[in-house]
Structures are given as C-alpha cells and as structure tokens.
Amino acid sequence: MNAPFGARGTALVLPQPYLLFLGDTTEPGFAKTAFGLRDWAGDKCVGEFALPGATVTTHLARMTPAQAYAEGARGLVIGVANPGGMIPPAWRKSLVEALEAGLDIVSGMHVRLGDIPELAEAAALLGRRLIDIRVPPAEIPVANGRKRSGKRLLTVGTDCALGKKYTALGLARAFRQRGVDADFRATGQTGIMIAGGGMPMDAVVSDFEAGAAELLSPDAAPDHWDVIEGQGSLMHPAFAAVSLGLLHGSQPDVFVVCHEPGRTEMLGTAGYKLTSVEEVVELTILLGRRTNKAIRCGGFSYNTSALGAEAAIALMARESDRLGLPVADPMRGGAAFDALVASCLA
C-alpha cells in the first residue's frame, strides 16, 4: 500500500522500530537513509541487515529479520538509495524473508514495492504492508501564495546532498531546547522516515510543488516555527525546479545556506562548478521575496566532516568574519552553532 497522508500532508504512520536494510551496498554515499535514521532516530532502530558483499555498515547490531522481530522491530526500511532508485533482483529474496518474519517493508526508492511480483504476492499472502514513501498525497492544490501565520525557516544549498536535512533537524532540536515551539518539516524520504510524516517533494508534479509546500507548513501560532528541510539547489542544472517550488511555497522568514567546503563541482553534472554561498544568498532573496518580502539569511551551515576539529573551527571563524553572519556545523555544535541559532531566531 502507499503510505497514507492526511489532508495536511503530514499524517504518515510508519511501523516502528526499524530494521535497516543495507542490501549489498559498497558505496557509503548510497546509504544516507540508513545513516540518517541512525543519527536522528537511533531510538527507533534495532539493528541492520546486510547481504554478503556489503561493505557499508551503520555499526548497529547485525541481525536477521527474525531476530529483529524478536527484538521488537516491526518495519524493515530499505536504507540505501542507489542510482535510479531500483530494487535489484538480488535483494528480493531477503525482502520476502523480512515479510515472512513479520515485518512490513518501508521504501523511499522510486520503484514501487507493489510492482515487484514476488513482494506483492508475499505481502498479500502474509497480510504485510508495502509502504512507498515517495508517493505524494492525492489532490495537492495549486499554490495560492497567501501569506500564512507562524514563522518558517528553510534550509537551502549550494548543491545536493551536503547537509540540508541535518541542518534542519539540528536547528529544530536547538529551537525546542531553547523553549521555542518548533516542528521539523520533512521533504525527502529519509526525513519523512525520521519525522514519521512529511511531503516527498521530488515526487510531486512540478505545477503543484509550491502547493505541496503550502500543505506541508500550514497556518500556525504566531510564535511557532516550522523548520523545513530543503531539497536540491536553486543553482543545480537538474534539480532547481523542486528547490524553487519549495522556496515559493514555504514562504520562509529565514533561510540558512548549506555548503560543503572543498566541493568544487555539482553532484551528477560534471563540468558545472559550484557557485558561491554569496550567490546563493542573493538568488534566494531575489526569488524568495516573491512570496515573502521580509525573507532574510540567518547564516550558514558548513558540512566540515572531511576536516579535523581545529581546521573546521578555524575555517568557520574566518568565513563568519568574511560573510558577516554566523557559520557553523550543526554536527559539531559549540559556540558557533549557538550563534547561528540566535541569528535565526533574532
């Protein structure tokens, strides 16, 4: 079955806890769903299940579906997102094994679980659910552009896959720790699995992107913040469409620019150089003012995972001085991240 959505696009209910399925993956970058769930929903994960030949690990306990069910797991999550979002034939026997063990299957892949005959047949026979995350709700309206009550923050980026989700999760958590009423609003499959609800923006027809973003972040109390997970990049030659629709529909009061120092080319588009963070700020304000004239940049989130602690701290301090706004890595925290949070809430 398709994952259910309520009228506001947030009533998704998933079977938890999870067993994370890594398939036969050897590329860590393809396992971002598993890593995201481990890092942000670790209390909902009982272990991992991998095929022979897999070299990627979340370092959770290795277990079979039957062992995971005995430990309380109720859903197997396909924790990898390979090129094309396909489910290889080599995985299917193990997925059927999970159904036989009593687990529902949750997938963020582009291919529909129910379109795979052996999975559909086993699920029907056993009374198990096949849940596709990348299925938007029906009857998404065209955006109306009406200014909504409440406050909104959107993470944007210089490229794809460099920390927009982690930044939004970190900021939402930090807001709540400061006593601010805040919700994380997920827009991608991993974020939806972490939050238990959201809107799969990259599966929405282009004409309805902004309307989907309006559904995701409805009217709220004046002091409530929706912290919205960004997608793609306004500068990306392939994925800018979803980024623009999300920007217009979110109507953010504040945005945070996410960037990975050292990255020079955009992912998947060899020859397209990364634009500067300043250019992203300029374009986001230019386009964002269409639906929120008061939009502003709250600061910058740098993914410094490739750097040592001292080098990362020094780089962010230099960049903050140069840009005139806080620069922080949410995964490192510290005074720089506190300054970013304060700037966003100011």
From TrEMBL:
SUPFAM superfamilies per UniProt: P-loop containing nucleoside triphosphate hydrolases (SSF52540)
Domain D-glutamate N-acetyltransferase-like C-terminal: 142-335
UniProt xrefs under Gene3D superfamilies: NAD(P)-binding Rossmann-like Domain, P-loop containing nucleotide triphosphate hydrolases
Pfam families, per the entry: DUF1611 (PF07755), DUF1611_N (PF17396)
D-glutamate N-acetyltransferase-like N-terminal domain segment(s): 65-136
Protein name: DUF1611 domain-containing protein
Species whose genome carries this gene: Sphingomonas naasensis
Lineage: Bacteria, Pseudomonadati, Pseudomonadota, Alphaproteobacteria, Sphingomonadales
